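Memo to structure team: turn this sequence into structure tokens by end of day. - J.P.
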Amino acid sequence: MKLLTRSLSAQESKVVLALTEQRRRETTRAEIVNLLGGSVKAADHVIESLRRKGWLERATWGEYLLVPPEQGPDAFGDSNLLALASRIADPYYIGFSTAASHYGLTTQHRNVIFVVTPARLRPRELGESHVRIVTPSANKFFGFEPVDVLGYKVMISDREKTVIDCIDRPKLSGGVGEAATILAAASRRFDWTKAVGYLERIDSGALARRFGWLVDHVKADIPPAIRDRLLQLAALSRKTWLGPDPARARAVQSAIGYDKTWHLFVNVSREELSGSAGLGRRKSVKKGS
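Reply from structure team:
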């Protein structure tokens, strides 16, 4: 028996996502014609393709059953997966490395979709991707906006909140080194006023210290007034650390160590952070080049 491929075209995605959003398992030929807004012949072609790929099963003439996505789609595109993952919880936002990937801030591809929601839900699978539920504290559940994905509104953290989230919980972004790289990439199109406002809203001096140190590390072009606000916010907390808590774990070998400016013990190896050092510096264009 020939294995069915379950990858979707744009029109096929529209049918599957519409039924999934409505939590429906059945549809009719007339409904699909109306949904696609084209000719009956074009809709019949989509229906036949979905049947061939294993998405629809005909119940009787003109009536079809949806084979649900959770039963094992083999080849979802990233956009399809985000749209489907967005139906898992409400309220929610797609965050951390998933959001960073959406904005092109990381080249690392992971088969994990991070859904941030106050709802207590179990993780689940979408095709070959694992949906991880992240439950934030109430003062950190903000900074997201609707983004159009295949005609559906998907809530994704904005660039500034994405960076802050990744620095706050670097394990969900690929580690401290990758969080630094994400910050460097984002800093070239960054609303610094919005970012420091978010940090003030979160009201964590420890997070401000980590953010500030990484800004200096990647040599991002931060306005002096914003840096001053960061230092004032950082002063609200005592000495803290970046990386594993040195009080609970041993200091990392070749750790960078204590920074006097931010009163921060950087418990991260120089090797891990070497690739992001100075990465946020704007490149000057030489005349005549």
